[in-house]
Every structure is written in C-alpha cells, then in structure tokens.
Design brief:
By secondary structure, the protein is an alpha/beta fold. It has two domains: 28 residues, no CATH class; 222 residues, Rossmann fold (3-Layer(aba) Sandwich), CATH 3.40.50. Helices cover 35% and strands 16% of the residues. The chain has nine helices and eleven strands. It has a five-stranded parallel sheet with strand order 6-7-8-5-11, sandwiched between helices. α6 packs parallel to α8. Bound molecules: zinc ion (2 copies). The site of one zinc ion has 6 residues, from α1.
Amino acid sequence: MAQSSPACLRCQDTRVYVRAGTGTRYAQAQLCDCAPNPCPTCRGTGFLLTLDPQGRDLAILCPDCERLKQRIEFYNRCRIPRRYQHSRLALADQDSENAKVFSLLESMLRGLPHQIRPDSEQERPSADVLKGMVLMGSPGTGKTHLLTGFAYRATIELGISCVFQGFTELLSELRQGYSDGKSDIEIIEPHLQTDVLIIDDLGKGRNTAWELSILDTLITERYNHHRLIMATTNYTEREEDTLRERVLSRDRTETEQYLADTLRKRVGERIYSRLREMCYFQSLQGTDRRLAPPEAEGFVESAD
Ligand SMILES: [Zn+2]
Ligand SMILES: [Zn+2]
C-alpha cells in the first residue's frame, strides 16, 4: 500500500475505490475514476492479440484489466459490512495496544501470496503452513476493524480471495437456506474454498449442537486443507477477562442468561485445539474505541 502521499486520495492509487451506497449492506468496490481509461495495455478492448505455438492469431484477456476486475470481485464477494468500508489496516490504525497484533497481521500479509501461490511446484512442508489469528477481546476494542482491514489488503492489494462472515449471520443464512431448499454445503462452500476465512464473533449464538456442528465443519475442513482461518471473539481464554454476554433466548419466558465462558468452553475441546494449532491467539485490551473522539471514522462506527 502506498503509505505516503498517493496521487489519488480516493483509492490510495490502488485504482479501486470502496464505498457503501445508501441502503446497501456491504461495502462495494469499483474501478476508481483515476484508472486510465481506456486501458493503455489493451486500448479498452479487454483483449490482447498474440500468436499461439502454431503461429495463429490468438486473443487473450488483458492481464491488467483482469487483475483489477478480479480484485474488485474478491473484495465484493468478501462481504465487508458497510460500517467497515474504511478499514485498511493502515499505519494510522496502529497504536501501542495493538502493535503486536499489527505486526503479526503484516507478516501474514507478506507470507500469504507465497502460501497460496507457491513459487515452486513442491509441496510445502506442513510445518511451514501460515498461521491465522484468533483475536480476542471485549466489544469495541477494534478487532473487527483490524480484520476487515486485513481483508481489504488481502483482496485489493494481493488479489487473494477472502470471506468475512459474522457467525450469527451465517446461522441465519443457513436457516433461511433450509426454507429455500438449500443444503448446508451449498451455503458454506464459499467459506471452505476461499483462501482466507474470517469469522466475526466466534462463539456467539445459542451454542446448540447444530451451531457447533456448523462451526466444526468450517474449522475441520479448513484444517484438513491447510487453509487460513481468522476470527474475532468476545470470549477470551480466562473467565475473568471475558465480558459477561447476555444470551438471548428465543423463548421469551426463559430468564435471561449471562455467560462468562472461556472460548475453550464455548466452542468445545475439539474446535478449540484445532484453532490453537492453526492460529495465533492474541487479545486486544483497552478502552472501548467506539467511545473515542470521532477522528478515525472506521473505529467510531465499529460495533465489533
Ligand atoms: Zn483513484
Ligand atoms: Zn486492458
């Protein structure tokens, strides 16, 4: 990312402009007005003419146009909630409390292209598999802001596919899917195939056997294929640190329950130990950034 004085302030010279139109649920990426038009490589045709090995004319897709198109598509398929449209994992987001998390995320971004598109054909040793991150901490500590920024950098800067998914939203989509006659696998396939899966609010929900089985499928499948997983969670590793979360029951006659489980208790031993193997566990402390003065737009609107 161009960190110093980009020529285009709208897109920071990425040629991709991210915005959230009124009434849209997710941030949308589109080609920035600063992108040369028509494309100088293909003169706007979208194709380049070349010769095949037999010397015959061959039209191939313009690599420059395709590259931008793919990045825009990756960002849009990632489904970043509109309130995180400004998340960039930029230097301005870094402070003394998140410095360690920041440098780990930066090193993952450096390692990702090699893990996903290794230079050599050789199988990489499993010990070398890039670890993801479980980011723990109370609401408002900026967890989601950092990981949506990570998703921006992975998709727009590196051209790596990414899915950002709130866990409870996934459960609602699955329930909706059942009534539309869709199977679990149809809905979670993109989550299994994507290069990077980010689960927002891991451990949230009613924690039924069905909910845990969905989580188990996601984690186990990605674990088996050495695919990167990242997550945010309000649960931590010690009960003392975990914010007591109000668990809303569907049955309104039930008394309200408050939970202060550890993440381990919340997701169960099997999922927890896989996550431990696949991810760095980091926690963010600090004051609720949503209460901070409105200087960093991304934080103020955050509700992670
Ligand atoms: Zn621009
Ligand atoms: Zn082109």
